[in-house]
Amino acid sequence: MSGQEVTVLLIEDEPEIRRFLRATLPAHGFRLYEAVTGKDGLTEAQSRNPDLILLDLGLPDLEGSEVIRQVREWTATPIIVLSARDQEQVKVAALDLGADDYVTKPFGVDELLARMRAALRHAFRSATAVDEPVFSLGDLKVDLGRRQVFVSAKEIHLTPIEYKLLTTLIRYAGKVMTHRQLLKEVWGPLHVEEGHYLRVYMRQLRNKLEKNPAHPRYLVTELGVGYRLKTE
Amino acid sequence: MINRAQVVGKRHALSLTDPGISFRLIQAVQSILNYVSPIAHNLMEDRRPDPDALLRRAKAEEADQTRGKLKVFFGATAGVGKTYAMLGAAHEQQNDGVDVAIGWVETHGRAETEALLEGLTILPPRPVEHRGTTLREFDLDAALARRPQLILMDELAHTNAPGSRHPKRWQDVKELLKAGINVYTTVNVQHLECLNDVVAQITGVRVSETVPDSVLEQADDVELIDLPPDDLLQRLKDGKVYMPEQAQQALQNFFRKGNLIALRELALRRTAEQVDQQMEVYRRDHAVVRTWPAAETIMVCVNMKPRGPRLVRAARTMATGLHAKWIAVYVQTPRHLCMPQADRDRAHQTLRLAEMLGAETAVLSGANVVQELLTYARMRNVSKIIVGKPVRARWKEVVIGSVVADLVQQSGETDIYVITGEAGESRPLASQALKRNSPWLSYGLGVAGVALSTAVAWLMFPYFSVANLILVYLMGVVLVAIRYGRGPSVLASVLSVAAFDFFFVPPYLSFAVSDIQYLLTFAVMLVVALTISGLAARTKQQAELARHQERRTAVLYALSRDLATHRGTGLLAQLAAKHLREVFDGQVAIFLADADKRVQLQRGELLHFEFDPKESGVAQWVFEHNERAGLGTDTLPGASALYLPLIGSAGSIGVVAVRPSESSRLSDTDQLHLLESLVNQIALAIERTRLSEEAQQAHVRAESERMRNAILSSVSHDLRTPLATITGAASSLLDEGGRLDPAARLELARSVYREADRLDRLLKNLLDMMRIEAGAVQLSKEWHPVDEVVGAALSRLEGRLRDHTFNTAFPADLPLALVDGVLLEQVMINLVENAVKYAPSGSAIDLSASANDREVVVEVADRGPGIPAGEEARIFDKFYRAKPAREGGVGLGLTICRGIIEAHGGRIWAENRRGGGAVFRFAIPLLERQPSVESEQAEPKLA
Questions:
Q1: Which residue does chain A place closest to B789, by CA atoms?
Q2: ipTM of the complex
Q3: Which of B510, B543, B576 is at the close of a domain?
Q4: Contact (CB, 8 A) for B658 and B667
Q5: Residues B282 and B327: beta-carbon distance below 8 Å
Q6: Chain pair A-B, CB pairs under 8 angstroms
Q7: Residue among B644, B680, B682, B639 at smallest CA distance from B663
Q8: B225 has which bridge partners?
């Protein structure tokens, strides 16, 4: 994070949403720039070079996916998509295009802040490229150097795929991963359509790591979109 | 000349034998009428128009408003200048701004006429292929599509090329008028149906192209184009009428001055009649008078004789002169059933002609012609009966009796008019021709019967008395009579007497008779034989008639029973087709009109009909015009099937097409009558079922209207409640934010948040419901472990689950189900929310799943108040809400669950739980094949 204030560019045509975020985000230490259309948004993104972009998918002039594509041509700045409900395909498309996460309208400030923090943390980490050797979350502890997994200090044996799935989620902790992204990372680019592989292994992983697999604490399903390792 | 006119009391018997009498008869009748009608007028002076007549007029006027106007340019012969006058009138109309088009015009190459075509639109003719040559015909459909205000149709009597919709041009004109297009047309006097005979007698040329008089009568305007005969002959000589080379021949044959004078007189007279009628209509309209006595009704009796048409034409002329209603009747006796088809058809053709000329027609049946005729005449209040003069020899009349004599004797108050036909012109009866040819076999077998009787008698001769041998012969005669009918049995009677004489009366093997007593024996034997042969033959006829009628009744009964016991238009159409096919042994199609008044072919397993695209318009035409068409009719006779309208009580509802395996089946009038009866039944049944379907639909509409109102009131209430809270809390924060303590501000903000959340869920439910109801739910199915879906639902509900404990029990080896994860998550969310809503705080909610080979069952069980008894199914209904709900909902959650589960081919149900509370279960079917997942060995961890 550069400097003291994190800069955020909000591309949103709804004035009430802009007003509400304008009132809220500065209180949490963000400096907010606003754009009403996709074109303005792209210009603003180039001139302000923000740390994070909040992008509404229902803009009047440009498709959200078009904005993401153009932004991704020159920067890896995290993008969080604001989308309406029941648009799982649109969300997945945005994520696959390079958006980092999404929040569904209507959303609460706490939810948005959590997503923003996760995205910024991940961006910061890839920029510094220093992975901590040990990841811990609640009673889950993963020693990435030694490839060991512990739950409540008890070592758990994982198969290679399970382990790879877990470490992939850890790498993007807090961020949603689409099925496609996970399949590509864990099984390779030839298996991106085999959604049920992912579901079966995710169930095995939950059975090994979660106290109540039917009501998971860490490995959360975002139906229709993908999975998220819940960090807070 | 009138040969003989007997006036006996009130009974007039006119008998006319001269060739050419019809015309004079007409004149005679008219002169009588001219005398009678003023008297009738005076008698009826006080009469006001009767209400029925006014109603009829009102209806006719109503029809007139949409109907086009017909103007006829009427002339005595060709060449008087009808076409020229018509074109001139058309120009005037066009100059007045009327959209004029020429449908058809024949200029015969006349230069003056052709010059008049200039400036008028001519509709392109339609080429018709006929036997290798291309004919040009008027294009009716193009004209109807073009819809000019006025169309010119030259030569009204023209016969269209085979394959046209109507055989005659006047039928085209009728259709144009019906479509609201005004028509100008031309016709010559010799083409009028009722004057056809007269003209033929005058000129010696019979014209086959005729126009029914009704067409001229219905014309709004008739303009007589008159040219004195000398001028016409001059024009002919100048070559202005026909092409020069044709002129000479035409002159000799037809255009003789005598002919022309007579034709001109006919034309003038006919026009005068027309004007008379218009005058009458005018007077009726203006109620100055005195309608014609409606009581006058004329009845004409037709039979199978070829002169029937002549009788009918005479009757029509008389009826027109009298302004009387007229009826043509035909009495069908059992004997007629044995007559050849061609003869029976002739009677029906005569009736059709009468119908065309404006008569009402009736077919009576019974054994006694005179009795039937008089009964019917009295019933219909007939004042005059017209019959043909008998052509039988005098002695026959004495022996067999005469219908005419009996009629005259028994008619009482009714006048009988006896009219002769022209003997020379009559075609021989088919029955006579047939009797000479085909029944040879019957007669031969009759003779053989006598030979057999003789053989038997020969064998008996040595042992029995001669009297017994007579009985053997009589027996033979009875058998022949029963088997072969009247003629052969008469022959057998005579031969039997002769054979008896020859073989068994001394001197043997000679016709001579030694004992004079035997002559009496012969006489008695002959009389007895003839009598029993007559009786036996009649019995046979009656039995056949009875059988015939029984079959008809049976068919009708079977149909009506089937139609009465079934419901649904589609099913009825199929049943109807089945019955029709059984009777007519061919293909049957049923077309029913849809809401847009287009007929649609009904499809079904019992309806086999090879639809001919060339005939696609026929059914629609029949439906729109309420007239039959196709095979055996005057409209599109080239079609392969007969199309009849299905006429219900409120007009046409569809069309039946029958394509018999052999087309002769439909030329049998009995079969046609049967078909009509069947079609009527079908129409009524289908109409009835349609009406009940419509009533049903109206009920459903009313019900859904009620439902919509309920939804609106429920939804607006449910949306307003959270909105009221939000508005109130937010306004408090705004207005009094400074004065409120932090705890109160927090409380207000919380309630805004809570209510907004509730509003959000309500909206989501409503939107989901709308999508499910609109059938817009697209399942994007993938393989999901159901426990993962349950987990996702619980994560999403996180904030609202704090008051309850959740127990989950999902076997680790639960099979994958092919489902839409997002929708199934919604089901879980709704079920869990429902449980949370009703179960008391702190109680446990149990979620579990199990699977068998066929399905995976998920259950949500709570410890709430349970489901009211008997409401287990109703709780899934839209807007159902159980009473003690802590937090109001719209009552859609469970309905949405049901919609989603059913879209997956599964089922959902609810019941009360043992120990209290409710349990909701849903089952999703499993596919036999589970997706394969590559297994891997657990890799030993790196040390």
A1: A223
A2: 0.87
A3: B543
A4: no
A5: no
A6: 80
A7: B639
A8: B75
From chain B, pick out residues whose CB is under 8 angstroms from the CB of A207. 812
Q: Do B825 and A223 touch (CB under 8 A)?
A: yes
CA-based nearest distance A131→chain B, Å: 20
Kindly list the strands in the beta sheet with A226-229, ordered across the sheet, starting from the edge strand earlier in the chain. Answer: A176-178, A226-229, A219-222
Question: Are B85 and B222 members of one domain?
Answer: yes
Which residue of A lies nearest to B938 if distances are taken between CA atoms? A159
Answer yes or no: are the C-beta atoms of B68 and B179 closer than 8 Å.
yes
- Closest-approach residue (CA) in chain A for B754: A108
User: Which residues, other chains included, contact B419 with Cβ-Cβ below 8 Å and sequence gap of 6+?
Assistant: B14, B15, B16, B22, B25, B310, B311, B314, B386, B387, B388, B389
Kindly list the residues from chain B whose CB atom is less than 8 angstroms away from the CB atom of residue A160.
Answer: 936, 939
CATH architecture observed for domain A6-128: 3-Layer(aba) Sandwich (3.40)
For residue B407, which of B442, B373, B453, B457 has the smallest C-alpha distance? B373
**DSSP string over chain A:** --SSSEEEEEE---HHHHHHHHHHGGGGTEEEEEESSHHHHHHHHHHH--SEEEEES--SSS-HHHHHHHHHTT----EEEEE-TT-HHHHHHHHHHT--EEEESS--HHHHHHHHHHHHHHHHHHHHT---SEEEETTEEEETTTTEEEETTEEE---HHHHHHHHHHHHTTTSEEEHHHHHHHHT-GGGTT-HHHHHHHHHHHHHHH-SSTTS-SSEEEETTTEEEE---
Give pLDDT tens digits for A112-125: 999 999 899 888 87
Buried b (16+ CB within 10 A) or exposed e, B366-382: eeebbebbbebbeeeeb
Considering only CA atoms, which of B876, B859, B874, B851 is closest in space to residue B913? B859
Q: How far is A190 from chain B (nearest CA, A)?
A: 14
- Residue B113 contacts residue B83 (beta carbons within 8 Å): yes
For the segment B396-450, what is each residue's pLDDT rounded down to a tens digit?
666 666 778 888 888 877 888 888 754 433 444 333 333 333 468 888 888 898 9
Element (H, E) at B13: strand B11-15
Min Cα distance A221 → chain B (Å) is 5
Pairing of strands A79-83, A52-56: parallel
User: B628-646: per-residue pLDDT in tens?
Assistant: 888 777 777 777 888 888 8
Closest in B753, B789, B941 to A147, CB measured: B941
Give the domain ranges of chain A.
Answer: 6-128, 134-229
CATH of range A134-229; options 1.20.1250.20, 1.10.10.10, 2.60.34.30, 1.10.600.10: 1.10.10.10
Which residues does chain B have within 8 Å of residue A200's beta carbon, measured at their own beta carbons?
Answer: 785, 816, 933
CB–CB contact A215 B810 (8 Å): no
Token readout for B906 is 């599964």
Nearest chain A Cα distance for residue B942, angstroms:
7
Q: What is the DSSP letter of B229?
A: H
pLDDT of residue B782: 87
Secondary structure of residue B647 in the 3-state scheme: strand
- Containing B654, the helix (H) or strand (E) segment is strand B651-660
In sequence order, the β-bridge partners of residue A176 are A228
Binary contact (B782, A148; C-beta < 8 A): no
Number of domains present in the structure of chain B: 5
Give the whole-angstrom CA distance, residue B602 versus residue B657: 11
| β pairing state of B855-861 and A148-151 | unpaired
Sign of CA dihedral B661, B663, B667, B673: positive
- Burial class (CB within 10 angstroms; exposed 0-12, middle 13-18, buried 19+) of A171: middle
Q: Which residue of B has its CA nearest to A206?
A: B788
Q: At B231, is the pLDDT very low, low, confident or very high (cuts 50, 70, 90)?
A: confident
Region B796-818 average pLDDT? 86
| Amino acid making up residue B936 | E
